[in-house]
Amino acid sequence: MLNLIKLEEVDSTNEWAKRNIEKLSDLDGVIARIQSRGKGRGSNKWFSPSGGLWLTLMIKEFPSNKGVLSQLSSVAIAEVLENYGLHVELKWPNDIIISKKKIGGVLIEGRNESFIVGIGLNLNLDVSDFPQSLQENIISSKEILKRNLPIEEVALEIMKRIGECREELDRVYIRYLGLNQDLGRKVELQGQKETITGQVIGIENDGGIRIRSEGKENTYYSGSLVYI
């Protein structure tokens, strides 16, 4: 039976999981109604009011790397949302997209040979609830479906699906390629030290993205992808 710990308000479910990692078992989840300091990739903050799904899942048994786990988690989320009538696409490395707008994302952090999988989804929210600077690029399930979704039920289904997908890595990779919207795109890959401009020509099964730039092909494992 899945164990979902429910919190009213927390700084970040990922940070809570780090503080309590010794008490958590494989596939334990923690969900909060509100995050006061939700985390995105790098130094980005994640706006996390009541009405969204703010979930962290503890993974203590996984034979591969963070990139593969990101693919797996993204596919699991997409397949659960599909069951609610939402058509999802994926953007490398961790964005969940509907109608070219972001409905959510995944943040994976390694801790003591385990992984902490943070998941944020804009579910029962109005886009007008968000800061104006974000509104143009985001979407919520409520905006699409014109109804609320059962947040805890969705969280439990995602936890279950991630557990199942660990046994289906070959299928998950094929499904990820089918859902990914990056292939063939002209992009900028913005890294900490440099920005690469080129065309996406592949997504590797180890989580890397392959880009052709200035006649050369290279695979990258970190950075932010911007379409141009």
Question: How would you characterize the overall build of this protein?
Answer:
There is one protein chain. This protein is of the alpha+beta class and 228 residues long. It folds into two domains: 4-179, Bira Bifunctional Protein, Domain 2 (BirA Bifunctional Protein, domain 2); 186-227, Roll (SH3 type barrels), CATH 2.30.30. It has helices spanning 13-19, 66-82, 132-135, 141-145, 151-165, 169-179; strands at 4-10, 29-35, 38-39, 45-46, 53-59, 89-91, 95-98, 101-111, 114-121, 186-190, 195-203, 209-213, 216-220, 224-227. Helix 2 (66-82) crosses helix 5 (151-165) and helix 2 packs across helix 6. It starts with a strand and ends with a strand. 37% of the residues are buried. The model has no long low-confidence stretch (mean pLDDT 94).
* Backbone structural class: alpha+beta
Query: For the residues shown, what is the average pLDDT?
Result: 94
Query: What separation lies between the terminal Cα atoms?
Result: 46 Å
Quick one: CATH superfamily of the largest domain? Bira Bifunctional Protein, Domain 2
Can you list the strand order of the major beta sheet?
1-2-5-9-8-7-6
CATH hierarchy class name of the largest domain: Alpha Beta
**Strand and helix order:** EHEEEEHEEEEHHHHEEEEE
Number of helices: 6
Strand content: 25-35%
Q: Tell me how many strands there are.
A: 14
What is the CATH fold-level name of the largest domain?
Answer: BirA Bifunctional Protein, domain 2
Largest sheet entry: 7 strands, mixed
Helix proportion of residues, in percent?
A: 25-40%
